[in-house]
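Appendix B, example 12.
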Amino acid sequence: MNGKILVVDDDAALNELIRDTLEFAGYATVPVFDGDRVIDAAVSEKPDLILLDLTLPNVRGEDLYRRIRQMPEISGIPVLLMTANIPRELLESGIRKEDVVSKPIDFKALKARISKLVSL
């Protein structure tokens, strides 16, 4: 196994497609469909990486990202943000462009990026 990835996307079909792709590449995956469960899942599962959609019901992905970074027990977990368009205020807040995955997802590029982050 290459590592464990928390896959956070409320679109069930896309969540499954991402997980299938990553599992085929040798990663264990944990699905999360609801923004309200992300923090609890990250704390309990201790993933090697969180793949986080910015557009979730009930909570903004940017807010979840900030909460993850503020919690000592999970702040060291790498996070890749997924979005169809990168909000300017997100980049202005200090998030690096390379920490954002554009939708539609280029799965070859996603796997390469994850491989670099999980092997650190």
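The helical segments are 12-24, 38-45, 61-70, 88-92, 107-118. The first strand starts at residue 4 and ends at 8.
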